[in-house]
Amino acid sequence: MIHVEHVDGVNGRHWVVSVPGTATWAPVAGRTPFDLTGDVRLIAGQRSAGMAAVVAAMRATGVRKAEPVLLVGHSQGGLIAAAVAADPAVRREFTVSQVVTSGAPVASIPIPDDVQVLSIEHSDDLVPQLEGAANRDRPNWITVTAPAPTAEVSLGERTEPLAAHRADLYQRTAGRIDRSTHPSIEHWRIGVAPFLDAADRTGTGWDVEVTRVATP
């Protein structure tokens, strides 16, 4: 399920598109585009059905070229968000200006310099390390790396191999980042304010259900 919301404020209409992570680990491609097949294609630098689903959701909900878009995603959702922002065909149709990824191996994706990126990575999460490379240090790309906040997680859960990859733990880390006064985060916050400023928004949202259609 892709969530699309438009935000109408004094700065005009902006869009927030939330992309889900991997829904199934089945080795054979099925109805959901957010599956293991999508992960493999994205890691290999190929287009995926999940990318096509995001574009279709943006078209269906009425996103227009002149209206800035913020793409947000965890795990495969972050990979898709970054890949969509870097896709020349998408850039000709839409204006993706901000991307937020969490727990996603996105270092090799050539996101253009005019897209502001915030990547959140837990230092004890194996998934962002799958590429074997760190995110590039660029003026438009901030990477925040921190240990997963597991203090409130049970000992048994902490010993799970992918415990640090959990979306709820990344949400806690994002909350800490939101309270940060670091200059880089302050700069990011200024750029993303039109999408998130609760005092300056009246929005409508849609949950868009997408499925993979078999081709002959």
Description:
This protein has about 220 residues and is of the alpha/beta class. It is built from seven helices and seven strands. A seven-stranded mixed β-sheet has the order 6-5-4-3-2-1-7, sandwiched between helices. A hairpin with a 2-residue loop joins strand 1 (about 1-10) and strand 2 (about 10-20). Helix 1 crosses helix 3 (about 75-85) and helix 2 packs across helix 3. The chain is globular and about 45 Å long. The model has no long low-confidence stretch (mean pLDDT about 90).
Question: What is this structure, in a nutshell?
Answer:
The chain has helices at 36-43, 49-60, 76-86, 88-93, 155-158, 167-178, 183-196; strands at residues 2-9, 12-19, 68-74, 95-102, 116-122, 141-146, 202-208. With 216 residues, the chain is of the alpha/beta class. The longest helix is centred in the last third of the chain and has 14 residues, at 183-196.
Instruction: Determine the fraction of residues in helical runs and give it as a percent range.
Output: 25-40%
**Strand share of the residues?**
15-25%
What oligomeric state do these chains adopt?
single chain
Strand order of the largest sheet: 6-5-4-3-2-1-7
Compile the SSE list and pairings.
Elements lengths: L1 E8 L2 E8 L16 H8 L5 H12 L7 E7 L1 H11 L1 H6 L1 E8 L13 E7 L18 E6 L8 H4 L8 H12 L4 H14 L5 E7 L8
Task: Give a quick set of tags describing it.
216 residues; 7-stranded mixed beta sheet; alpha/beta
